[in-house]
Design brief:
Blueprint: E1 2-14, E2 17-28, E3 32-36, H1 43-50, E4 58-63, E5 66-67, H2 73-82, E6 83-86, H3 90-93, H4 100-111, H5 125-135, H6 152-164, E7 170-174, H7 182-199, E8 202-207, H8 210-216, E9 219-224, E10 227-233, H9 244-252
Parallel strand pairs: 3-8, 3-9, 6-7, 7-8
Antiparallel strand pairs: 1-2, 1-4, 4-5, 9-10
Helix pairs in contact: 4-6, 6-7
Length: 253
């Protein structure tokens, strides 16, 4: 089943140049699609369009076979619940004045009347927090700490736990390992792969790091100057039919 489909999407900040230029792609249920390209190629703009942060200038986004352009308030709320995100900088993603447990509970409290969780079963909010911390391999004691008391890798695990807490269908991962050291990067990628298998979510993994994308994703899409130049199963990465720009990236990889 197709979770999300983008058709001929366009977004411009400048009348003379499209930041996203006629991009079409889809993500299937349980799939990881990697989106790679150099800084400024339009990857993050595409993500912001998907998240509703940016208004698109053309094209369409369809979620669960429902076009967002025609969505009513209930459908838009359902979309916001089912499309979560993990950003590059976990420090900026967490409210410094809230304890970790309160940050973890925030999505649940927003949508609790609409939730029918399949994978999380708990008898109290405290038990839910402990379950979330456990699934991202953090000790339950961290729930009573503040963000500044955690390492960068720990904070990113918290943002991942928060994103999965309401069992979304899609998580947009925008450079989720870029601000971490090498050891933490590898551990986060392994965690994301494990969570996807156990929870059945789809990922859009946006990165300039082709090696990380290759490790996590089944398909890879390549952007340059706002355009989607190439898309392929990762097993075909060295195929001679790859776009010349993809071959350049592979050389870096």
């Amino acid at each position: 089943m197709t979770v999300i489909e983008i058709n001929h999407l366009k977004k411009s900040y400048n009348p003379d140049k499209l930041a996203v230029n006629d991009v079409s792609l889809s993500i299937e249920e349980g799939e990881s699609l990697g989106l790679v390209g150099e800084s400024g190629c339009g990857k993050s703009t595409l993500a912001r369009c998907l998240l509703g942060v940016e208004r698109v200038d053309g094209g369409s986004i369809t979620f669960n076979e429902k076009p967002l352009a025609n969505a009513n308030r209930k459908d838009l709320r359902d979309y916001r619940r089912n499309v979560q995100t993990v950003f590059q900088n976990p420090t900026a993603s967490l409210n410094p004045k809230l304890k970790i447990k309160d940050s973890l509970l925030d999505p649940y409290l927003q949508f609790q009347n609409e939730l029918q969780l399949e994978h999380f079963h708990f008898t109290s909010k405290q038990a839910f927090v402990e379950q979330l911390l456990e699934i991202v391999e953090l000790p339950k004691e961290l729930g009573d700490r503040y963000p500044h008391e955690l390492s960068g890798g720990q904070k990113q695990r918290v943002t991942i736990a928060r994103a999965i807490s309401i069992e979304p269908k899609l998580i947009v991962l925008d450079e989720p390992t870029a601000s971490l050291d090498v050891l933490s990067q590898g551990a986060i990628l392994e965690l994301l792969a494990t969570l996807q298998k156990s929870l059945g979510m789809s990922y859009l993994f946006i990165s300039h790091d082709l090696a990380a994308v290759y490790q996590l994703c089944q398909r890879i899409a390549v952007m340059k100057d706002g355009e989607l130049l190439d898309m392929f199963q990762k097993e075909d990465i060295y195929n001679s039919r790859r776009h010349e720009y993809t071959k350049e990236l592979i050389g870096i990889f």
